[in-house]
Design goal:
31% of the residues lie in helices and 27% in strands. It folds into two domains: 270 residues, 7-stranded beta/alpha barrel (Alpha-Beta Barrel), CATH 3.20.110; 275 residues, Beta-galactosidase, Chain A, domain 5 (Distorted Sandwich), CATH 2.70.98. The chain is α+β, with helices and mostly antiparallel strands. It is globular and about 100 Å long. A hairpin with a 3-residue loop joins β17 and β18. It contains 21 helices and 29 strands. The strands form five sheets. Strands 17-18-19-20-29-26-25-22-23 form a nine-stranded antiparallel sheet, covered by helices on one side. Strands 1, 2, 3, 8 and 9 form a five-stranded parallel sheet that branches.
C-alpha cells in the first residue's frame, strides 16, 4: 500500500454582484447542485467549501434547501465552510477598515445561517500582499489558501510545498496553504487515474503531508463543456469513486483538520502576487504579447521547467492603469468609503444620524467592492457593462443613503474640488440631490461620470476600446471549439462570426464633453470607424477651471487657448446645475476666430447602460417620435434635438440645442473574451452634435445644449402598488 497522504479538496463558488439572475440559476443547475448531490453519496469524503456572499445571498433567497443541505453536511463534519470578505473584493483595493468589516460580517452571517465555525477564508482571486496578514488575523482568520506559485516566487522548491506554512505581519501570525497548480490542471480535465498517480508520487516523496486542491467550483459544470464531461460522462463519479477506493492511503480532509492535526512545514513570507494566469493578464497588452511569445519559445528549451518558477508576470494593482475605467470605479468606491468613515467618526463624537440608513450604506459600499468588474482576463470582467453598472448602482445608492442618514435638505447644489482619482490633479464634483457629475479639467475638461441618483445609474460607465493580447487569436480566426473538454485557458471559441472585422481601437476616452474638430467633409462612417483625423488639440488638453457658486445655482467654467490646425482658438465651455434640477445646461463659446474661419466642431457624448438592439430602447426626435433603436447609426441634419429612451431602465435623456444642430450617432462595441469565448459587447452609444462654425463679426460663435434627464417612468413604477391577482 502506498504511504498515506492527506488531500484537502477546496472549492470556491462565486457569482458577481450584478450578474444576471439566469446566470446564477444556470450555474446552480449545472454546477453547484449536481456537485453537492454527487458528493453527498460518497460519505467517506470530506471537503472545504467557500461560497461568496453575493452567491450565498442569492442561493438563500432562491434555493434555501441547498443552503440547508450545506448546513447538514457541516453538522455531519463532512464540509468545512470557509469565510472571506462578504462580497468577494480584491483586498488590495480596500482600506483596512473595509477588509476587516467585510470578513467579520460574512463570518457572522455564516455562523447564523449554517451553524458553522469560521476559522479560515478564501482569498479572492488569490491576490496576496503580505501586509494583509495583520488585517486577516484581526478579523479572526487563522488560515487561507494561495497558489503554489506564490511560494515558488518566494524561493521555495515544489517538493516542499505540502502542508501549511506560518506567515506574520506586525506580530500577527496565521497559516497559508499552497494550492497545487498541477492539480488545478488535472482536475477535472484529465482522467481520475492521473490524479491518483500524482498523489501516489507525492505520498512516496512526502508521506503524511497535505496536498491542497483549491479552485473554482464552476469548472465542475459551468465552464464550457464541463457539465457533460463531469456529470453526464461520469467523470466526478469516477473521481470520487477512485478516492474512496484508495481511502486507506488518500485521506480527504478539511483545512481546519489539517491545521489542527499537522504541524506547520515552516515559515514563509510571500511576495505580492496572484495565481500565475492573473499575473500575466495584469501586464500591459504589448508586454503580455511579448511574454506569451517568449514562453512559447522557451517551452522547447532544455531546463525551462526549472526556470519557469522564476518567471513572473505583473502586479494586480496595475489593472487600474491598464484599464482607467477600473481606476474610476476604485476612486469612486474610495470616496464613498471615506465618506462613510467620516460619518461614523462624527457619530462617535455625538452627532445624531439614522443608524439604519448608515448600516444600509455600508452594505451598498461592500457590494460595490465586488472584484469582478475591476479587472479582465479569461473572464469578461470589466468588459461586461452589467457588472460595471452594478458597481456604480451600489456606490450611488450608498451616497444616497448617507445623505438620508445625515438628514441632508431636500434641495441643494454644490461644487467641490479635489484629487478625486488620485492623479495629483484637481477634479471638480458638481452635485445636487438628483445628479452627480465629475469633471477633469486636466483631461480635456471631460465629464467622466454622470450619476442619475433616482435610479442609481452612471450614464458614463463606459469603456474605451484598446488592444488586447488575445486579439491576435481573433485576427488568426482559428477555433478549437470542437475539441474535448479543456480548461478555459486553452480554449479558442468564437461566439460570433467575423469578429476580426469588428476590432477597433479608440484614440480618445469614450466619455462626454469631448471637444473635437474635423475636416468639413468628414462623414459619419469615417468618424464611427475611427479614421477621421482630429484637427484640434482640445480633446486631451489642459483646461483652466473656475467655479461660480450661488445658493441655488453652480456654474463650472472651463476654458483653453488652443489650436485647430494652425488657427488659434479660444474655447470656453460651461456647465450649470440648479438645486432641484435634473437638467445639465452646457454652453460653448468659440472666440478669436478669423472671419474666414472654416471649422467643423463636434462635442462627443457617450451614454452607457442603454443597450442597443431592443425595441424599447430607442432614439426619438424633438417631438418624441421614435427614429431607431439605440445603437442605430444616425446622420441627422439641422434638427431641433435628439432623445435617448430606455423604457426598461425608466430613463429619457433629451439633448435640446439653442440652434439648429446636426447629430451623428453610432454604437461603441468591443471585441472581448470571456470563459465562453470571444464575443462582441456593446459598451455605449456615441452621440455627437456637430456644427459648421460661422463666426460673427467679433470672431465668436456659441451654442447652448440642455441635457434633460427624466426618470419619472422609473419613479412612477416604484410608487405603483403591486397588482393583486385573485382566482
Amino acid at each position: 500500500m502506498p504511504s498515506p497522504i492527506r488531500l484537502a479538496l477546496t472549492l470556491h463558488d462565486h457569482q458577481p454582484v450584478g450578474n444576471f439572475d439566469h446566470v446564477f440559476e444556470q450555474a446552480y443547475q449545472d454546477s453547484y447542485l449536481p456537485l453537492l448531490e454527487v458528493f453527498s453519496r460518497y460519505s467517506p469524503l470530506k471537503m472545504t467549501l467557500h461560497t461568496s456572499g453575493s452567491l450565498m445571498e442569492w442561493l438563500d433567497a432562491n434555493h434555501p434547501e441547498y443552503v440547508d443541505r450545506i448546513a447538514s453536511l457541516v453538522t455531519e463534519g463532512r464540509v468545512e465552510v470557509l469565510g472571506g470578505p462578504y462580497y468577494e473584493p480584491i483586498l488590495a483595493m480596500l482600506p483596512s477598515r473595509d477588509r476587516i468589516t467585510q470578513i467579520r460580517s460574512y463570518a457572522q452571517w455564516l455562523r447564523n445561517r449554517l451553524g458553522a465555525t469560521i476559522r479560515g477564508m478564501w482569498m479572492p482571486e488569490r491576490v496576496w500582499e503580505q501586509s494583509y496578514t495583520r488585517d486577516l488575523v484581526d478579523a479572526g482568520m487563522e488560515y487561507t489558501v494561495l497558489d503554489d506559485s506564490h511560494f515558488k516566487n518566494a524561493g521555495l522548491d515544489e517538493a516542499s510545498l505540502v502542508g501549511h506554512f506560518l506567515t506574520e505581519d506586525d506580530s500577527r501570525v496565521m497559516s497559508i496553504f499552497p494550492g497545487s497548480e498541477r492539480l488545478r490542471y488535472l482536475v477535472p480535465f484529465a482522467a481520475p487515474e492521473k490524479t491518483i498517480d500524482y498523489l501516489r508520487k507525492m505520498a512516496a516523496a512526502r508521506p503524511d503531508s497535505v496536498i491542497v486542491f483549491g479552485d473554482d467550483g464552476e469548472k465542475f459544470g459551468t465552464w464550457p463543456g464541463t457539465h457533460k464531461h463531469v456529470y453526464i460522462d461520469g467523470w466526478l463519479e469516477r473521481f470520487f469513486g477512485a478516492l474512496v477506493e484508495n481511502q486507506d492511503w488518500i485521506h480527504t480532509t478539511t483545512l481546519a483538520e489539517a491545521v489542527d492535526e499537522t504541524p506547520p512545514v515552516g515559515k514563509a513570507y510571500l511576495p505580492d502576487s496572484s495565481y500565475r494566469e492573473m499575473t500575466e493578464w495584469a501586464l500591459p497588452a504589448a508586454r503580455l504579447t511579448e511574454y506569451e511569445e517568449l514562453v512559447a519559445q522557451m517551452k522547447h528549451v532544455p531546463g525551462w521547467d526549472r526556470l519557469r518558477q522564476f518567471v513572473r508576470g505583473g502586479f494586480w494593482r496595475n489593472f487600474k492603469i491598464k484599464y482607467p475605467e477600473s481606476d474610476e470605479m476604485y476612486s469612486r468606491m474610495m470616496h464613498l468609503s471615506r465618506r462613510l468613515q467620516e460619518t461614523l467618526d462624527a457619530v462617535a463624537l455625538g452627532e445624531k444620524v439614522d443608524g439604519r440608513r448608515l448600516d444600509e450604506a455600508r452594505t451598498e459600499l461592500h457590494r460595490g467592492q465586488c472584484n469582478c468588474a475591476y479587472w479582465h482576463g479569461a473572464f469578461g470582467g470589466i468588459y461586461l457593462p452589467h457588472l460595471r453598472n452594478a458597481v456604480y448602482e451600489h456606490l450611488i445608492a450608498g451616497d444616497n443613503l448617507l445623505d438620508q442618514a445625515v438628514g441632508r435638505p431636500d434641495m441643494w447644489v454644490e461644487a467641490t474640488t479635489g484629487d478625486f482619482d488620485f492623479d495629483a490633479r484637481q477634479e471638480i464634483r458638481l452635485a445636487n440631490e438628483k445628479l452627480i457629475g465629475l469633471i477633469a479639467p486636466a483631461r480635456g475638461g471631460q465629464l467622466y461620470e454622470l450619476d442619475v441618483r433616482s435610479i442609481c445609474h452612471n450614464l458614463l460607465a463606459t469603456l474605451t476600446r484598446r488592444p488586447e493580447a488575445y486579439h491576435h487569436k481573433v485576427l488568426a480566426g482559428a477555433s478549437n471549439d470542437g475539441q474535448d473538454c479543456a480548461s478555459i485557458h486553452d480554449q479558442v471559441v468564437f461566439k460570433q462570426k467575423d469578429l476580426d472585422k469588428r476590432l477597433q481601437y479608440d484614440d480618445h476616452p469614450r466619455k462626454s464633453l469631448l471637444d473635437l474638430f474635423y475636416d468639413d467633409k468628414v462623414s459619419l462612417d469615417t468618424v464611427a470607424s475611427g479614421k477621421a483625423t482630429q484637427l484640434g488639440d482640445f480633446v486631451d488638453g489642459w483646461y483652466e477651471a473656475r467655479v461660480r457658486r450661488n445658493p441655488e445655482r453652480i456654474q463650472i467654467q472651463l476654458y483653453r487657448q488652443g489650436h485647430v490646425g494652425q488657427t488659434p482658438v479660444k474655447l470656453t465651455k460651461g456647465l450649470m446645475l440648479d438645486a432641484g434640477s435634473s437638467t445639465l445646461e452646457i454652453a460653448y463659446l468659440l472666440e478669436e476666430l478669423p472671419r474666414d474661419a472654416s471649422l467643423h466642431f463636434a462635442v462627443e457624448m457617450n451614454f452607457a447602460g442603454l443597450p442597443a438592439g431592443v425595441d424599447d430602447r430607442y432614439f426619438c426626435d424633438a417631438n418624441q417620435r421614435a427614429i431607431g433603436q439605440l445603437g442605430t447609426p444616425l446622420d441627422l441634419t439641422n434638427v431641433e434635438g435628439l432623445g435617448l429612451v430606455d423604457q426598461w431602465l425608466g430613463i429619457e435623456v433629451h439633448l435640446r440645442p439653442s440652434r439648429a444642430t446636426n447629430f451623428w450617432t453610432f454604437p461603441i462595441e468591443a471585441v472581448s473574451q470571456s470563459e465562453g469565448g470571444f464575443e462582441l459587447v456593446h459598451q455605449s452609444v456615441a452621440v455627437l452634435p456637430h456644427w459648421h462654425v460661422v463666426p460673427d463679426e467679433q470672431g465668436r460663435w456659441g451654442v447652448t445644449l440642455r441635457m434633460e434627464i427624466d426618470t419619472s417612468r422609473a419613479e412612477n413604477h416604484r410608487e405603483q402598488p403591486a397588482e393583486v391577482v385573485t382566482t
